[in-house]
Amino acid sequence: MRINVLLASVLTAGTPIVAPLAGQSSPAEVIDRAVAAWAKITTVRGTFEQTVSNSLTGTSASSRGTFAQERPNRLAIRLGLSF
């Protein structure tokens, strides 16, 4: 899931696994630029697909939806039909 990858990047930003090459930004600098850019955004809209697996029953369910966020305190999530 994309959110997990971003979260993992944020959590490990202070501990780079490989040193950047000459002329490249460090992971912390990249995250700082992303945070600064995100702070300027006031609205976001998008679509998503979600799959939830139940290890007890061996089943999974998938659905699609849309989301919209208007800062600082509005968030709408609309789930569509399962597929």
Write up this protein.
The protein is an alpha+beta fold. It has two domains: 1-40, no CATH class; 42-83. The chain is 28% helix and 40% strand. The protein has helices at 2-11, 27-39; strands at 43-54, 59-70, 74-82. The protein has a three-stranded antiparallel β-sheet, with no helix packed on it. The longest helix is centred in the middle third of the chain and has 13 residues, at 27-39. It is flat.
Topology:
Layout: H1 2-11, H2 27-39, E1 43-54, E2 59-70, E3 74-82
Give a summary of the structure in a few sentences.
The protein has 83 residues and is an alpha+beta fold. It contains two helices and three strands, in the order H-H-E-E-E.
Mean pLDDT: 81
What string gives the helices and strands in order? Answer: HHEEE
Q: State the total count of DSSP E strands.
A: 3
Tell me the β content: 35-45%
**Count of discrete domains:** 2
**Helix amount, in percent?**
25-40%
Structural class: alpha+beta
The radius of gyration computed from the alpha-carbon positions, rounded to a whole number of angstroms, is 18 Å
Uncertain regions spanning at least 5 consecutive residues: 1-11
Query: How many separate helices?
Result: 2
General shape: flat
Major β-sheet strand ordering: 1-2-3
How many strands, which pairing sense, and closed or not: the largest β-sheet?
A: 3 strands, antiparallel
User: How far from one another are the termini?
Assistant: 18 Å
Oligomer: single chain
Question: Notable features of this structure?
Answer:
28% helix; 2 domains; alpha+beta; 3 strands; 2 helices
